[in-house]
Amino acid sequence: MRTRGAVLERMGLPRPYGDSRPLRIAEVELDDPGPGELLVRMVAAGLCHSDLSSINGDRPRAMPLLLGHEASGVVQAVGPHVSRFAPGDHVVLVFAPSCGHCLPCAEGRPALCEPAAVAAGQGSLITGAKRIREGGQVIDHHIGVSAFAEHAVVAEASCVRIDPSIPLDRAALLGCAVLTGVGAVINTGALKAGQSCAIVGLGGVGLAALLGAVAAGARQVIAVDISDQKLQVARDLGATHTVNSRDPDALAQLRQISGGGVDLAVELAGVVPALEFAYEAARRGGTVVTAGLPNPDARMSLAPVTLTAGEKSLKGSYMGSCVPMRDIPRFAEMMMAGKLPIEKLVTHELTLDQINEGFERLADGSAIRQLIRF
Ligand SMILES: NC(=O)c1ccc[n+]([C@@H]2O[C@H](COP(=O)([O-])OP(=O)(O)OC[C@H]3O[C@@H](n4cnc5c(N)ncnc54)[C@H](O)[C@@H]3O)[C@@H](O)[C@H]2O)c1
Ligand SMILES: [Zn+2]
Ligand SMILES: [Zn+2]
């Protein structure tokens, strides 16, 4: 079938993106779903900084690429040997599918699935197939999802079914911002009720993490960003304190608020100064979680003795260390119960044709989550 989607052909075009238009809306050809694959009609897709990082070159990928990885939709058709899904199912797309058989999958860490990482690097589905073409040229899938299109062929391993009573537009955010942010706090960081927590970087992912820390019962949720506007949003969402990390005494402020440092500091900005701040913000014996994805050439500096003598833990968090089949239904139910009000993260709704303007807003910091409605 034919569908419309946003294709990225070249990284690093200059801003403003409304003028350089790095994403071209193309009519592409989708193959029928093969074995273990589904055809999904997209309902909503969110604009995430990880997409922006492929546009600006911080997270290089092979091109041409049909971008987008945070989305929800409805199954339209199923390929051969699909038993878990049927047409009409409501699904959240997952950007790290899992094979169920490799060592990380066997250890209960599906976000680290080895075949999924290989497929992501090759721009294919985890089934090995590439199903998108334009005029005879093959277009890569983006981490198995390629959400910025009216339809997508995806592996069933890249989908989690949700209850049809859950509004599908809001559910899109479950696939990345919520899995990553809430998961970084409660799975990777294992935050306990009564602990103190700092959230460093307050975009869609960071503010989802903040909602997770509030829901988990942290006694202090200290929100940190370089933008006063984001700090105000954080207060509205339940932060107990805010610190602008551009202030020369920002770290001293945080240590004063928390009595020497927080139990858990989570970095979700994607830049090294934010990670270094989070590291310093954790108390002796505390935990630092990093979920940001800086440029692969970036390096952090830390004094190893503080890691040793302070018994700090520094942990990476990919997709919030989530098990999507377990966590998406849980987080969806929390959302429906008002315990994770993620709809408050949506600042803009767009059409597919407005996508370049949307990425300009994400780059200049004037939007939190923006949803494309199909
Ligand atoms: N680990 C994962 O699985 C995963 C998944 C999704 C996104 N990410 C990454 O998470 C990061 C955040 O994504 P997003 O969509 O929320 O981005 P965003 O652009 O919406 O938000 C980033 C925020 O960080 C703030 N910031 C920038 N420099 C800072 C500093 N020095 N100190 C404190 N705050 C600072 C910005 O002001 C902004 O509010 C990105 O790096 C993205 O690639 C990781
Ligand atoms: Zn994302
Ligand atoms: Zn696996």
Automatic annotation (TrEMBL):
SMART domains: PKS_ER (SM00829). InterPro entries: ADH-like_C, ADH-like_N, ADH_Zn_CS, ER, GroES-like_sf, NAD(P)-bd_dom_sf. Residues 18-372 form the Enoyl reductase (ER) domain. SUPFAM superfamilies: GroES-like, NAD(P)-binding Rossmann-fold domains. Its cofactor is Zn(2+). Keywords: Metal-binding, NAD, Oxidoreductase, Zinc. The keyword tRNA processing does not apply. Transmembrane segments: none annotated. It holds the Pfam family ADH_N. Belongs to the zinc-containing alcohol dehydrogenase family. This is Zinc-dependent alcohol dehydrogenase family protein. It comes from Paracoccus fistulariae.
